[in-house]
Amino acid sequence: MTPTPKGLFPRWQKRLLLAAALGLGLTGMGQMPIFSRYYIADIPGLTWLGDYRVTAAVHLALAAVLLFVLCAMATAWLGAGRDRPVLSRAGTWRIALYAAVAATGLLRVLQNGDAPLFGPYSVRYLDWTHLGLAVALGVFALGWGRRAALSASPGTKG
């Protein structure tokens, strides 16, 4: 049975991907002191947004969830074999942006380890690159994000 672009990924994967991405955006902003600076963390129930350690831990946990979902989706797509749907231009851009955000995030995690990879000025550029790519992914999601990432496979008549 040939998988259709619509039926390749279960709805729960798409929703978990969206929830993780939105949560990463929120906790990523929590890495900057904006929630405390603008008194958002003073709102009852949002105090955790002003605690760097909490937002950093939640950010890492959500990154693991996001990577899990993306790997599950890639496995399903690759597992479809020769009848797999073709990536559209929007799908290619989506993969490239997610990969770039993930790569800069991984470099940032490695930088926080026992053997730092970069000097202080390079870390600043890494942080700005990660933030810029995350913003680019958000802008992409608002613009091209509703376009289909997959089109019918080449062997499908339609």
Strands in their spatial order, largest beta sheet: 1-2
The structure class reads: mainly alpha
Principal-axes geometry comes out as: globular
Instruction: Output the number of helix runs.
Output: 5
**Contiguous uncertain segments of 5+ residues:** none
Number of strand elements: 2
Hey, roughly how much beta strand do the residues contain?
Answer: under 5%
Note the run of SSEs as H and E.
Answer: HHHEHHE
Summarize the structure.
This protein is mainly α. It has helices at residues 11-30, 34-37, 52-79, 89-111, 120-143, and strands at 86-87, 150-151. The protein has five helices and two strands, in the order H-H-H-E-H-H-E.
Note down, in words, how this protein is organized.
There is one protein chain. The protein has helices at 11-30, 34-37, 52-79, 89-111, 120-143, and strands at residues 86-87, 150-151. It has 158 residues and is mainly alpha-helical. A two-stranded antiparallel ribbon has the order 1-2. The longest helix is centred in the middle third of the chain and has 28 residues, at 52-79. The protein starts with 10 loop residues before the first helix and ends in a 7-residue tail after the last strand. The mean pLDDT is 88.
